[in-house]
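This entry is listed as follows:

___
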Amino acid sequence: MIIFPFGKAPAVILVAALLAGGWLLLHPRGKEDANLVLWSFAKTHITAYNQALPALNHAYPDVKLSVKQIHFEALNRRLLSSFWSDLPSQPDLVEIEISCVGTYFKGPKEQIGFEDLKPRLVESGMYNRIVRNRLATWSNRGGIYGIPNDVHPVMLAYRRDIADSLGICVDSLYTWDRFIEAGRRFTVEGERYMIELNEQNVGSLECFLFQRGGGYFDSLGNVIFDNPVAVATMEWFVPLVTGKGRIGADLGSGQNAAVLFYKALEEGYYLFFICPDWRSSFIQEYSPRLAGKMALMPMPAFYPGGRRTSTQGGTMMAITKACKDKDKAWKTALFLYTNPEGRSRSFKKTNIIPPFRDAWTEPVFHEPNAFWSGQKLGEMYIGLADSIPPQYSNPFVVLAKGKLSQALVSCTQYYSVNGSSGFRDHIRKALTASADEVRKYQKRGLIE
């Protein structure tokens, strides 16, 4: 009997490795039959694109597309590394999320790793078909570096059944003043809050900042989150989430935050919450017991007649400069984003409306949604799409979000102790200090 000197467990592992290696030698993996490679981080997108492959191959027999799902962070690390090192292992097409796209615009314009698609968009007529403010997100120094996948207008979702039982008439909540007044009547501290709002993460705050026409940067790349609009927004927001009279609360952003949110929603802890189109599908999927009890309404305006939406999230599809057949990549990208069958299938799965105005007449966007109390969800989001505010990308947007978050924490802490006394001055100082930090980094890493 042969005894393996290192014990049974290593012997089993060795045998398994030898068997696996032998199988691979006898069954070599064939060379991938693809002339275009697409990377995406989004599982729902990957599924949709794989479902569209037969139709794509029928429309364009010369296209052999390989679709690869890559983890969000890994995708951006690998792609940036390949751009900076000019490595050959780059995809032809790639989807980039809105919070990361600014990173790709750092440095001289000619070193941006994506093809400028503005000439193709204009020549094809696509430029005038797309919601104009959505193109701003994917633009930099005169170029447009991606086709938008979405618009992501924001509404407020609410527990219709509870609102009805409390006598809340949502049609009367057309300004934030009226909404807050109602919120202070119906909020019960520790038991029920008018709206889900986060007092430390800027996700809630920035939604209102965009709605008011503010942001992190302007179209020229200047830092603006310490301007009068930002000061006024912070002064308005903080009392909603801290101190006496608060109407908003949040259960945190940890690992179980999503589970806690859905449970809280089902138990009536929140009456309203910020709901871009993509989030509405999550509610359907993870809170099925609320079917027929939910509804949507436009965001209240900051003044009568003002903007009643904002925007949150987003994705673009880009063509890399390394792509050897950009014409083929262009027609593939357009097919994946504009073919009616795929668009209809995607909307039924995600509730995401497309950025192409001519698509909005398709019947699927005008069907009642039973989960949302029979409302025509697509039609409602489409009605707000052209009103979304612009959101400008920048290489320093991640830093800016972090610095605004620091200012928010400082302001909530100050207000919880001091109330409104000296609050505006504190806001100005906190925002200016945070914004100046970003300006300092901008000067160190100038965009030529």
